[in-house]
Design a protein that fits this description.
The chain is α/β, with parallel strands linked by helices. It has 15 helices and five strands. Helix 3 crosses helix 4. The protein is globular.
């Protein structure tokens, strides 16, 4: 017999459940022979991280090696770098030690084989969750708000890589009903999906993001505050190893410029230059990707947008235990090792300075 007894203490009555389970096992043991205990398998629930069915088709070993060569490294070297990062994490008492090997590899590739940048972003990955509780707390994919967000805003990553080895993530507002549009929930969902992808795949050449703006109305633009824009852009540019190759808008309305004007102050110049705005529909995407790669209802051969969106929503639900335990881990600032410079903390994130900048943020 085996039974998985959860160790995380984040849910209500968890301690009582564990106590009850132990009592049941003890009572059962008293009624059986002495060999009963030998039939019980115990394990730590973190062994089961991201062992669900993968949503992303993986590249071959040859492809993985070619990706590494693009960043002046090799698969073998990346594996050695993972061990180096493990040793570094052990020297950082303020950081959790539970990052998966795939996640550490993804950081090495996404940061173009720059070890110091990887360390900075890993520190940011856990530290920023304290600074931005609005998008990093309550990460339950089964809440009513998250389910409503899944229905109103399609957001999914295509299963196949492009011939160049890029990942393509697509999105669209379904009805345009502003009462169903929750930008905080969408930002939270976007980052939760990136967590899943970090732990499923490491070797690819970068990301494209495509947004179909056919149902994007002026009211949606006005919901985007500078505060949310800055939080999202900080996570995209300074926390996650995303390697964004392009952001593409199709069916773009004239007032999309207002959205870009809000985002621009928080985007690095190089990233802003990679934004492509098209008034045309899905047919324009053939300029960027093979038609077969796209969903059926956008002229391609992949599953429909709705099917892919539901599949990713189900994947998030499958990882609910992770999101409610390891997915909530943050840095422990009391254990952070001070730097030599007085008043500065080791790592790339000055917590007090960043918190203050978000509180005082304004745009003319």
């Amino acid at each position: 017999m085996c039974r998985w007894i959860p160790k995380e203490l984040l849910r209500l009555h968890t301690e009582e459940r564990r106590s009850r389970m132990c009592a049941e096992l003890k009572e059962h043991c008293a009624r059986k022979d002495e060999q009963f205990l030998n039939k019980i398998l115990t394990c730590d629930e973190t062994w089961f991280r991201f062992k669900k069915a993968k949503m992303l088709e993986q590249g071959s070993k040859e492809f993985q090696q070619s990706v590494c060569e693009n960043f002046n490294t090799s698969v073998k070297q990346v594996e050695q770098d993972v061990e180096t990062l493990r040793d570094w994490l052990k020297s950082q008492p303020h950081l959790p030690q539970s990052a998966s090997d795939t996640m550490l590899k993804a950081y090495m590739i996404g940061c173009k084989n720059r070890m110091e940048q990887v360390k900075q972003r890993l520190d940011n990955y856990y530290t920023v969750r304290k600074v931005m509780p609005d998008i990093f707390e309550e990460r339950d994919p089964l809440t009513h708000l998250m389910k409503e967000c899944n229905e109103e805003i399609h957001w999914y990553t295509l299963p196949k890589l492009t011939p160049e080895g890029y990942r393509v993530t697509m999105g669209r507002i379904v009805t345009g009903d502003l009462t169903k549009y929750n930008l905080i929930q969408f930002t939270k969902r976007l980052l939760m999906m990136e967590d899943i992808k970090l732990n499923q795949e490491a070797f690819y050449n970068g990301n494209y993001f495509v947004f179909n703006a056919d149902n994007y109305v002026l009211g949606h633009v006005l919901r985007l505050t500078p505060h949310i824009a800055r939080e999202l852009m900080y996570c995209v540019q300074d926390v996650l190893p995303m390697l964004i190759k392009g952001i593409i808008f199709i069916n773009a309305p004239s007032y999309l410029d207002l959205l870009l004007n809000i985002m621009k102050p928080f985007m690095k110049g190089k990233l802003f230059q990679r934004i492509h705005v098209h008034t045309e529909g899905p047919e324009i995407l053939e300029k960027y990707f093979p038609r077969a790669l796209l969903p059926k209802d956008m002229g391609g051969e992949e599953e429909t947008c709705d099917t892919l969106n539901k599949a990713w929503a189900k994947t998030m639900e499958d990882h609910r235990d992770w999101f409610l335990s390891e997915g909530l881990l943050t840095s422990d600032e009391k254990k952070r090792i001070p730097n030599k410079s007085p008043g500065k903390l080791k790592g790339s994130l000055d917590l007090q300075e960043l918190q203050g900048s978000f509180k005082t943020l304004c745009i003319d």
